[in-house]
Write the structure tokens for this entry.
Amino acid sequence: MRSTTPSQDFIRGIWVENPVLIQMLGLCPALAVTNSVKNALAMSAATFFVICCSSVLISSCKRFIPSEVRIAAYILVIASFVTLADMLLQAYSPVQHKELGAFIPLIVVNCMILGRQEAFSSKNNVLRSLLDAAGTGIGFTIALVMMGGFREILGTGTFLEIPLFGPNFEHWVVMVLPAGGFLTLGFILLAMGFIEERKKAGKVEKAEKAEKAS
Amino acid sequence: MTDSIVRVTASPHLRSTESTTKIMWSVVISLVPVVASSIFFFGPGAIFILLACCAGCLLAERCFGSRPGSLADGSAMITGLLLGLTLPPGFPLWMAFLGGAFGMVFGKIIFGGLGQNIFNPALVGRAFLQAAFPVAITTWPAKAEHWSMFQGDIFAIPLFSPAMDAVTEATPLGNLKFGDDPIVTSIFDLFFGTTGGSLGETSALLLLLGGLYLALRGHLNWHIPVSIFVSVFLFSGLFFTLGISPFPPLFMLFSGGLMLGAIYMATDMVTSPVTNRGCWIFGFGIGLLVTLIRIWGGLPEGVMYAILLMNAMVPFIDRATQPQLFGSAPKDGGKEGGKEGVRAMTDVVRSEEFPVPVSQPAPEQKKVSTFNLIATLTIIGALAGLLIVLVDQHTRPIIDKYRAEQLQKAVYEVLPGATSYATYYLVGNSLSLTLPQAAKVSEYKRVYIGYDAALQIKGVAIERGEPGFQDIVRLIFGYDPHTATLLGMKVLESKETPGLGDKIFKDQAFVDQFFAGPQPPLVAVKAGAGKGRPNEIDTITGATISSKVVIDIINHALQEWTPVLDQGIPLTPPAAVNDEAKQ
């Protein structure tokens, strides 16, 4: 295994290995609840809570978990933190809880969280697992807010419920419907692929130029 | 003898004089009468809409198309024209442009350009517009006073809503399906096109002529439109004679976008099956789907979705109808031998290309006893349970309090003037304040009876949920059993389509009708078409189904509760009344 510094553990998940946009993990919530920025933020916050708590707990008791039942144990831990997040959200932000509906309990099956436990927390110490989880959680937040912003601006003409275009804006209804989630994710991935390709082409050109010059 | 040169080339030796460009331009020519008729029927606005669609398609092809010179072959032009012909007159130009560009990019270019696409790009563009702007695309403005005037608000500023005409003209299909007094438009009008509808779908005559021209030139596979017509006629005839559908078969054939779809969209060479047998299956599928969607669907028209769905089936149809290769072994006989041979060959290839690694003995692993495994999981489970119980202890009262508050607020909202209420359960056939011993609260139906400050009864609040357009719609309404009038209504839960169905609680004018004292059983009427009777509720334009669900829920709830309420209800509050101050 390659060795990384703790700061790399943290930064990696934010963009270079962004869970949604690069690793394509956790797509279910990314598609389902990003019809507004507020929902995206609430979902991200709940996921952030679950991934950080699970990573800390699992990395601290990794020695006691036999590898035969590790996945079951991880799921058990994740599920209990999801239940906590569900109850806390229902108690302190009932309107938001109603809005997210069944998608809070579904955080349990978010493979991004299980993935971090299996790939990182089960092999590293508590601090580094926490940094890794926090980085991944922030990356998830960035992706969701990007999608939520795109969909909310086109779908309802607002950003964080602040009207941007005035009352006569024609809502792109499709953007707040499930189909809009797929379209938005497709758009963002297309744009990222396009930029990546341009970057590569630029690098090759530079290298060729440098070769010619020398 | 230098002028007779023998060329030695590889096959093919016979080349057709046809080219994509030629075929495409002859399709454009066959569309000229249709386009002319749309301008004749709908005025100069039609040409602007068609131009906007074409501009969107051509620009997208120019910017993102991979093949140089792909603009000149006319395929983008046809997509634009066909998309424009499916749009209603008065459709805003910016939306038409957007639909063209979207259909081109997401229907064609991302698959690799002409010849690679799965779905008809014009219909992809229209499906996007239908999903994005459902109101604009289902609004057919009434004919303008003079031919040269523009219908609707086609010059709406990009991104902003068009000004909606108060007067709209229903299409023949919509009229028959959702109209108050359904009329079957005469076949004569449908055939010549003197009816409302999208730009290019009104005149069956001109569409058929265009199709005939293309079929004679060999650019259109006549099997597809004919099979669609046959299957629509058969299925709608069957349902009509069984009395299930109100659509006579001939009306089905000539109304809506069926002619345009069957002749110009389903026959798209790229997205239709290769063999004639496949074409018949394809056409029959489209016909069946069109009939089903028109009779039972939420929209009046279903040609677009029918063709798109069958487009997706084309690869399977092609595989199933693949003709046998000349000289190859018959399919049923000799099958075994052939398969064996193939298997043997692939085995050889596999073993050469991917050498199977010699399996290495798995590394020694410490055996953990089953007891240990179970114990670990049990301990984790117990700890998790403990954690959950602790947090639950803390959050449960907050959640319960909030729920009670919400319900209380809703009860007071639908019973205006009430200052206290009591919850009565339906035990057996009468109302009771208390439940039998050891009974579960959730198993009993209940009503909330509200009282005013003078302790006189104000009305009864009833809660009920029923399936709506998307999911369960749950609402609470207030009812005065003495005057038999409604006092108010509040939607508690609904996942209806944003922008349309959610108007059942966002449209104040709709909600206010329930507070104005209508007398059930309620009747749904189209906005503005009511006759002023006290039981009429105007439905929301574009959300007819959701509005009707609200009305149905109230009617069903009252059907269920009226016998109980008629037996007599407590006129004064019981001692233990929920008289918390209004929040």
